[in-house]
Amino acid sequence: MDKPQLLDQIATDIRDKNICPDLAKTAKNLVIGDGNLNAEIVFIGEAPGKNEDEQGIPFVGAAGKFLNEMLASINLARSDIYITNIVKYRPPNNRDPLPDEKRAFWPYLIKQLQIIQPKLVVTLGRHSMEYFLPNQKISQVHGEPCHITFGQDKLVVLPLFHPAAALYNGGLRQTLLDDFARLPAIVEKIKQEQA
Questions:
Q1: Residue 41 three-state SS
Q2: Average pLDDT of 94-118?
Q3: Ordered domains of the chain (ranges, CATH)
Q4: How many whole angstroms separate alpha carbon 157 and alpha carbon 66?
Q5: Phi-psi region at 143: left, alpha or beta (left = phi > 0; alpha = psi -120 to 50)
Q6: CA gap 109, 44 in Å, rounded
Q7: What is the Cα–Cα distance from 51 to 21, expressed in whole angstroms?
Q8: Band of the pLDDT at 151, cuts 50, 70, 90?
Q9: What distance separates the 2 farthest-apart alpha carbons in the chain?
Q10: What is the rounded distance in angstroms from the CA atom of residue 81 to the CA atom of residue 45?
C-alpha cells in the first residue's frame, strides 16, 4: 500500500474500532491530518476545534492562519509540511482533550509518523508535547530539539507553544516566531547527522 492508502486505513481503523465513541457522537468529522505525505516536518496539535471539525482539516481557524504566517516566515507553505492532532475528533465546546482520549488516539498518531517518516516532529502546545516529552514544562523546553527513542523509532521532537496561545498572549507571539525561525537550521542539522 502507498502512503495515502495507509493513512486512509488509519481513518478506517479509528471508525471501525469506535475510538472515543463519545467524541465521535458530537463531532461532524474525523480529522486525520493534512499536507505533504513526504514532509520533512510534521506538526502535531492537540485536537480539532470548531472550524476544523466542520471542514475535516486541522488548523484552519485563527490559530491555523497564524501557523500559515509563521510557515511563510521561513519560506514554507502548508503543502510542504504535514499537520495533525493527537486527538482526531473535536472535544465538545473546544475543551482540552482528556488523558483517556489522548491515550486512545496515541497509537494512530505513532502510525502516522511511521508512514510519513519526518525528520522533525514539532509539537504545538502542552497536550501534544507531554506524550513525547513527559514531565517537561513547555515554558522551559520550547524551541529546543530533543532526541527521543520510541521502540524502534528515533525521533527529533521540537516543542513549541500552541499558535492559539500566542493569539491570547501577545508576549508569546514573538517567542513563537523566534522558535519558528530556527526550524530550517534544525532540519538541516538533522539531515547532516543522518547523512
A1: strand
A2: 95
A3: 3-194 (3.40.470.10)
A4: 21
A5: left
A6: 9
A7: 20
A8: confident
A9: 47
A10: 13
CB 142 within 8 A of CB 106: no
Checking if the pLDDT of 86 tops 80, the result is yes
Where would I find the beta strands (DSSP E) of 16-152? 34-35, 41-45, 82-85, 120-124, 146-150
pLDDT score at 64: 95
Burial class from Cβ neighbours inside 10 Å (0-12, 13-18, 19+) for residue 70 reads buried
* pTM of the shown model: 0.96
Look at residue 146 in the predicted model and tell me its pLDDT.
Answer: 94
> 85 phi and psi, to 5 degrees?
-130, 160
Q: At 141, list the grid cell.
A: 523546553
CB pairs under 8 A, 24+ apart, for 142-147?
142/175, 142/179, 143/175, 143/178, 143/179, 143/182, 145/120, 145/186, 145/190
In 3D, which of 110, 120, 190, 124 has the Cα closest to residue 159? 124
User: Between helices 3-16 and 99-116, what is the axis angle to 10°?
Assistant: 160
- Helix, strand, coil shares of the chain, percent, nearest 5, are 55, 15, 30
C-alpha distances in angstroms, 46 versus 14, 23, 128? 17, 14, 6
Return d(Cα 166, Cα 192) in angstroms, integer.
Answer: 32
